[in-house]
Specification:
GO terms for molecular function: enoyl-[acyl-carrier-protein] reductase (NADH) activity. The protein is α/β, with parallel strands linked by helices. The chain has helices at residues 20-30, 46-55, 71-84, 112-134, 159-179, 205-215, 224-235; strands spanning 8-12, 34-39, 63-65, 90-93, 141-147, 184-191, 246-249. It has one domain (8-250): Rossmann fold (3-Layer(aba) Sandwich). Strands 3-2-1-4-5-6-7 form a 7-stranded parallel β-sheet, with helices on both faces. β4 (90-93), α4 (112-134) and β5 (141-147) form a beta-alpha-beta unit. The chain binds nicotinamide-adenine-dinucleotide. Nicotinamide-adenine-dinucleotide is lined by residues 13-15, 19-21, 40, 66-69, 94-97, 121, 146-148, 191, 193-194, 196-199. Residues 13-15, 19-21, 40, 66-69, 94-97, 121, 146-148, 191, 193-194, 196-199 line the site of nicotinamide-adenine-dinucleotide.
């Protein structure tokens, strides 16, 4: 029943084969979606090659640079997307950034610059991309972003990213309230801890994973493909009545008191 045939899905945030966005891209492809990929470029063009090679088996329509801190690049990338695709149906926002030094130690010592960059890249980018992709969603659509429990609980070392994720989840609700009139649904998947490039910057990520393995009802954490499956569901007509929600894909950890 899960059928994404004929849907154009734009996936952001693939850095390597551990990326949650990679797990999502694979499951969207499996469900029949036609993929378009954007990645964070670097000066030497390494990411273009790396991401391009990784996604090749999924036969994407394009693989374009899109640094969300570069308004000009975002604009030109979406111009190309608008030219290549008659419309966008799905946007996967799967990116975040905080300075490593702001992901451990005293939260009260977070500098203004660390606050600004974490919120700009991890939170404002959802608003920015929802606007850009939303204007191409001529037949309605589905937007999914990735969050984490640190948005509603004080998780050791998550610090400024917890604030960014709280603002991200609030943004999901405001975007959903606005874009519902165009039949665009906006949801977040709150994933359990997974070893990735981004999570390796969070102090004690392995301890977090071990804790989840001990406490979560399913006695384990989740993997990228499980997040991909829930995301594919949210992007499909099976979830046509769901918007503005934060769906936990965390092996049940969030329900536990101790
Ligand atoms: N790994 C976890 O435990 C976990 C748990 C819950 C939620 N998440 C969230 O999942 C999302 C994906 O993270 P991940 O764990 O797969 O790590 P990842 O490092 O594979 O992905 C992060 C992505 O953000 C991109 N990015 C960073 N700055 C950017 C910019 N300026 N412009 C465009 N892209 C930029 C990176 O290139 C990378 O592709 C993030 O929002 C993260 O907070 C991760």
């Amino acid at each position: 029943m899960l059928d994404l045939n004929g849907k154009n899905a734009l996936v952001t945030g693939i850095a390597n084969n551990r990326s949650i966005a990679w797990g999502i891209a694979q499951q969207l492809h499996k469900a029949g979606a036609n993929l378009g990929i954007t990645y964070l470029p670097d000066e030497k063009g390494k990411m273009e090659k790396k991401v391009g090679e990784l996604v090749k088996p999924l036969n994407p329509s394009f693989c374009l640079p899109c640094n969300v801190q570069d308004d000009k690049q975002v604009k030109s990338t979406f111009k190309v997307i608008g030219d290549r695709w008659s419309r966008v149906d799905i946007l996967i926002h799967c990116l975040a950034f905080a300075q490593k030094q702001d992901l451990s130690g005293d939260f009260s010592k977070t500098p203004r610059s660390g606050f600004n960059i974490a919120l700009e890249v991890s939170t404002y980018s959802l608003i920015q991309l929802a606007d850009a992709a939303g204007s191409l969603m001529s037949k309605g659509g589905s937007i999914v972003t990735l969050s984490y429990l640190g948005s509603i609980r004080a998780v050791p070392n998550y610090n400024i990213m917890g604030v960014a994720k709280a603002a991200l989840e609030a943004s999901v609700r405001y975007l959903a309230a606005e874009m519902g009139t165009k039949n665009i649904r906006v949801n977040a998947v709150s994933a359990g801890p997974i070893r990735t490039l981004a999570s390796s910057a969070v102090g004690g990520i392995l301890d977090m994973i071990h804790h989840v393995e001990e406490v979560a009802p399913l006695q384990r954490t989740v993997n990228q493909l499980e997040v991909g499956n829930a995301t594919a569901f949210l992007c499909s007509d099976l979830a046509s009545g769901i918007t503005g929600q934060v769906i936990y894909v965390d092996a049940g950890y969030q329900i536990m008191g101790m």
